[in-house]
Amino acid sequence: MTSTPRGFEFDVVGARSALALFGALDRARLSHGYLFTGPAGVGKKTFARRLAQSLLCETPKLTLLGYCNHCTGCTLFVAGTHPDFVASDGVVKIGKEAGSALHDEELTARDLVRELSLHGYRSDHRVVLLGDVEFATHEAANALLKFFEEPPAGVIVILTTNASGTLLPTIRSRFVEVPFGVLTGDEVARILEREGIPAKRARIAADASLGSITRAREVLDGDETGLRGASFAWFGETMAGQVADHGFLRLDDRSLSAGEKRALVAEMLEVVRIAARDWAVLALGGKDAPLLAPDQKKLLASVPKRKPEDVVALLAAVADVAKLSESNVSAGLVVDYLRMQLAPRPKPA
Ligand SMILES: [Zn+2]
Asked: Rounded to the nearest whole angstrom, what is the distance from the C-alpha of residue 142 to the centroid of ligand 1?
C-alpha cells in the first residue's frame, strides 16, 4: 500500500518500480508515453487504470498518485464513461481501409490518431491505455510514432505488454519503460482474499501462482488444461525424451495473431524456467529446499536426474531461449529450439 494524502486512495499491490517512479513525479514532469513491461497478471493494467483515474480526479491534491472516488471525474471514470479516458486491448490495426475485417471492439490506428489529437474534454489530461498492445503492421505502429513527433499537450499514452521484444525499437525508444516484477506469494494471496477467496485456498493458489494473479486464478479454477499446468507437463515429458504435444500454445490457430502466439510462448517459457529451476534444485539433491512451484513437486521429482554439469548447462540454455524469444524469431522456432535444449542427449552407441 502506498502513502497518499488523506481522503485519497491508490489501491495497487506490488508494482514497486512504478510506485517509486510515479510517486516521485508531479504533473509537470509527466512524459507523454509510458511502456509497462512484465509478465502477465502482475498488475500492469490495474496500475495504468489507477494512474489514469489519479490524473482525471478533479479534487485538488499535491501528489500525482491518488484519487478521491467521489468527484465527477472519479464517478465518470468508475462508470467507464469518462470522455478523457480511452482504453483498448490487443491488436491495433491501421484502419478499415486496409481491407481486413475488424471487430467492433478493435481500435484502429486511425481511431488512435484521432483520439490522440483531441484535447481533454473535462480535464487537462487525456489518457489512452493500450493494454497487451500489438501492432498489426508497421503502418499501425508508425501512426503512433507520428503522435510522438508533436504530442498534443496533456495527452498521455500508456502501453502494456508481456512481450516487449515484439515492439519496434522505434516505439520502445519513445516511451519511458517501467518494469513490473512478479508479485510475492503474500501479495497474490492478499489480492485473492480481497476478492473473497478463503485464506487457505488463497494461500494454495498463491504458492502455485509463480507471482502472477492470472495463474493464481487458473489454479483456483482447477484449470490444468491452462497454460501453466500444460507447460509443466510439457517440460516433464520433453525432459524424459518424449515428443510432448504443444497444442496448448495454439501455434496453428489462425484466429490468433503472431503477437498473441508470442505472448503465449513467452508465458510458457516463464513456466519452463521455473520448472527447470525447481527440477535443478531437486536434481542436485535439495530435497527440502523451498520450491517456486511447490504444487508441482511430484511431477518435477519424477523427471529423470542428470549430471550436475548437464543441469547447469540446461539452466543456461533455457535462459538463452528466453532471450531468443524476445527477438523476432517465430514462436514455433522458439519452441522447437527449447525442445532441442531440454531433450536428453542420445547415449553414445
Ligand atoms: Zn476524484
From this structure: 35
